[in-house]
Amino acid sequence: MNVQTVSVLLSFILILALAAVFLRVRGLAHEGRDYAPVQGNAYRIRAFGFWFLILVGLPISIWLFRENPYTAEAAAPQVINVTGYQWYWELDQSEVAAGVPVEFRVTSADVNHGFGIYDAAGTLVAQTQAMPGYVNRLTHVFETPGTYQVLCLEYCGLVHHNMIAEIVVTEGGSDG
Ligand SMILES: [Cu+2]
């Protein structure tokens, strides 16, 4: 099962769960309840949510920003021009060397797409938006040689799931 199939199944399960919550709320809507005890519970949940975000969410957010691709140096020796189309990717080059920065110049010919690069294990390694009328620059250093997949990260229509391209990363140093 690949990443896309898992995300489709997960989305479907979450949609069903959400629908179940709405049906339950609708079912309970006829019951009269005293306001005060409900309010007390809601305040407790709100206080928990507030401190959870401050104590857990904030450190995680700061930690995730430790590698910010948008501040990486612009002098990248390897450049790949990327254009997103409904529904495929066009890369003017699909082979780069490991260990050397790659600058992706990403745009779109029609609607917004999400340019996401995944390693062989299915882990997202870098991503940016592909937007019509703009060129977004994303710099990434591939440390591990191998075949990487490009998937679309923004729903862009009927065949969105099939927007798959490949980038081959070779051992760095020799031909660059
Ligand atoms: Cu898409």
What does it look like?
Residues 75-176 form the Cytochrome oxidase subunit II copper A binding domain. Pfam families: COX2. It comes from Sinisalibacter aestuarii. This is Cytochrome oxidase subunit II copper A binding domain-containing protein. Keywords: Copper, Membrane, Metal-binding, Transmembrane, Transmembrane helix. The chain is of the alpha+beta class. It folds into three domains: 1-30; 33-66; 72-170, Immunoglobulin-like, CATH 2.60.40. Helix content is 32%, strand content 32%. It is built from two helices and nine strands, in the order ααβββββββββ. It has helices at 3-28, 35-64; strands at residues 78-85, 88-91, 95-97, 101-108, 113-118, 124-130, 136-141, 146-152, 164-170. It has a five-stranded mixed β-sheet with strand order 3-9-8-5-6, with no helix packed on it. Strands 2-1-4-7 form a four-stranded mixed β-sheet, with no helix packed on it. Strand 1 and strand 2 (88-91) form a beta hairpin. The chain starts with a helix and ends in a 6-residue tail after the last strand. The model has no long low-confidence stretch (mean pLDDT 90). Bound molecules: copper (II) ion (CU). Residues 113, 152, 154-156, 160, 163 line the site of copper (II) ion.
